[in-house]
């Protein structure tokens, strides 16, 4: 990661327009939105004026109007999302209706769940999504083609000097490279996830196509900015000329103070959504070991432990909770606006980062981690011991790391924390503030501005 001493470019003396391609942008909700929203919020302080090409919010897409304050005054061209899987689903719907009329499907029963196996297998991927993955790169593929043309028009109209594109979806990076080529401008690729080394990556014929696209984009980019070192490794191997690790961060202007509820209950909170790279099962199994009637848990005099999950409803998560018999300890708050979610988290005792035991999880530098750190909240990482999130928590002395397969160790930690809170009134850690403060969003944006300035200087 870069430090303020690495800022070497000359300061910008007059406002410089830049073009940003981002598939999701406020008021659309989500952790991926935060990085670009904060970039647009703070870049003007370094003399850069962003102009954005993004999507119109799709029907049913979660919105968070509290994020609008970050991008007040930012010019945005919004285009319909043109999701290929949605288009395919519309075509298939009449066929499914005929099929349902021809035969009645038996009701699905909830399976019996052995302790050693996953509680609930992932739901079958809908046919429309499987077909879309076979014929297109991702759900933004159609949008990205239109966005590239719109970006060229907007870039010419505003006099943009640099093109930035953020992915995933990675078709946006392809669109960014094409836009920069058409305008003859420097191109900066922002990678929030690994492109090919993650569970959602294409396979078979599509994998070979995307590998070639990755290499084309990386070689075209004047700079590639990655949220973690494992992603940077992928970029370098694909031929990127300049790669910088600029992680996610927290906005000191909006982070509330950590104020845990002063009682004998340990509250562990997760903020975000469960998807291919996150897995709540190991933590929930650890929580389920805290049986007041059994040995080695609350019988030792500990208080109670509760879990709050803040994010979109997830059927597998709810099935896990019921099957493990811990519904009385788990509260699902559903989606909350970002400011309300942060307030809820600030009253917890521990913030959870729960990563799946799958390829690509070691590269995850989830935004929630930095917001936990920013407010001083102790962090529990259940994930790869050598992953980016685990290394940061250890470096910052900010909490604990437990591998996903060790639910017993999770339960033991929770029991010890419950004893500590009962005796001392709160969980105590001593994080290294110099490490934590380096992830403040304003600081991160100065790194961005330095990279942009150097890309301009080398053209």
Structural class: alpha/beta
**Named CATH topology of the largest domain:** Rossmann fold
The CATH architecture of the largest domain would be: 3-Layer(aba) Sandwich
In CATH, what is the class of the largest domain?
A: Alpha Beta
**Count of separate DSSP helical elements:** 15
CATH superfamily of the largest domain: Glycogen Phosphorylase B
Task: Tell me the radius of gyration.
Answer: 23 Å
Helix content: 25-40%
Number of domains: 2
Mean pLDDT over the residues: 84
Strand fraction equals 15-25%
- SSE run: EHEEHHHEHEHEHEEHEHEHEHEHEHHH
Q: Kindly report how far apart the N and C termini lie.
A: 25 Å
- The multimeric state of the shown protein is single chain
Strands ordered across the widest β-sheet: 3-2-1-4-5-6-7
The major beta sheet can be summarized as: 7 strands, parallel
pLDDT under 50 segments (min length 5)?
Answer: 3-12, 102-123, 293-302
Walk me through what this model shows.
There is one protein chain. Helices cover 39% and strands 15% of the residues. By secondary structure, the chain is α/β, with parallel strands linked by helices. It has a seven-stranded parallel beta sheet with strand order 3-2-1-4-5-6-7, with helices on both faces. Helix 2 packs across helix 3 and helix 8 crosses helix 13. The longest helix has 19 residues. The two termini are 25 Å apart. 47% of the residues are buried.
List keywords for this structure.
single chain, 459 residues, alpha/beta, Rossmann fold, 7-stranded parallel sheet, disordered N terminus
């Amino acid at each position: 990661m870069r430090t303020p001493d690495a800022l070497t470019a000359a300061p910008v003396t007059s406002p410089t327009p830049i073009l940003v391609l981002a598939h999701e942008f406020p008021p659309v909700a989500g952790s991926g939105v935060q990085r670009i929203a904060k970039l647009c919020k703070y870049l003007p302080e370094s003399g850069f004026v962003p102009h954005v090409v993004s999507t119109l919010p799709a029907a049913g897409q979660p919105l968070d109007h509290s994020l609008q304050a970050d991008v007040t005054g930012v010019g945005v061209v919004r285009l319909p999302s043109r999701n290929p899987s949605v288009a395919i689903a519309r075509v298939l719907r009449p066929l499914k209706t005929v099929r349902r009329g021809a035969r009645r499907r038996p009701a699905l029963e909830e399976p019996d769940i052995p302790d050693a196996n996953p509680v609930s297998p992932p739901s079958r991927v809908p046919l429309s999504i499987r077909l879309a993955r076979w014929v297109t790169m991702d759900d933004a593929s159609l949008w990205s083609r239109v966005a590239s043309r719109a970006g060229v028009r907007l870039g010419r109209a505003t006099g943009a000097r640099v093109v930035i594109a953020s992915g995933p979806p990675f078709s946006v990076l392809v669109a960014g490279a094409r836009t920069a080529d058409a305008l003859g401008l420097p191109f900066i690729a922002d990678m929030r996830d690994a492109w090919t080394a993650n569970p959602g990556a294409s396979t078979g014929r599509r994998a070979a196509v995307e590998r070639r696209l990755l290499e084309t984009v990386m070689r075209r980019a004047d700079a590639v900015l990655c949220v973690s070192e494992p992603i940077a490794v992928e970029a370098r191997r694909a031929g990127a000329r300049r790669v910088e690790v600029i992680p996610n961060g927290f906005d000191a202007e909006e982070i509330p103070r950590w104020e845990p509820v002063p009682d004998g209950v340990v509250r562990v909170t997760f903020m975000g959504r469960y998807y291919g790279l996150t897995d709540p099962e190991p933590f929930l199994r650890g929580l389920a070991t805290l049986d007041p009637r059994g040995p080695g848990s609350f019988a030792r005099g500990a208080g109670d432990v509760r879990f709050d999950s803040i994010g979109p409803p997830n059927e597998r998560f709810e099935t896990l909770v019921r099957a493990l018999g811990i519904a009385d300890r788990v509260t699902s708050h559903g989606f909350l606006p970002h400011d309300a979610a942060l307030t809820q988290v600030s009253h917890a005792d521990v913030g959870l980062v729960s990563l799946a035991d799958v390829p690509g999880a070691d590269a995850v530098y989830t935004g929630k981690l930095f917001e936990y750190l920013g407010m001083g909240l102790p962090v529990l990482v259940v994930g790869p011991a050598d992953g980016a999130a685990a290394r940061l928590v250890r470096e910052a002395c900010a909490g604990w790391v437990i591998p996903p397969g060790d639910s017993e160790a999770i339960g033991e930690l929770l029991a010890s924390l419950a004893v500590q809170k009962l005796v001392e009134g709160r969980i105590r850690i001593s994080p290294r503030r110099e490490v934590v403060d380096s992830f403040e969003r304003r600081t991160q944006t100065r790194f961005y501005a330095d990279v942009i300035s150097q890309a301009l200087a080398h053209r």
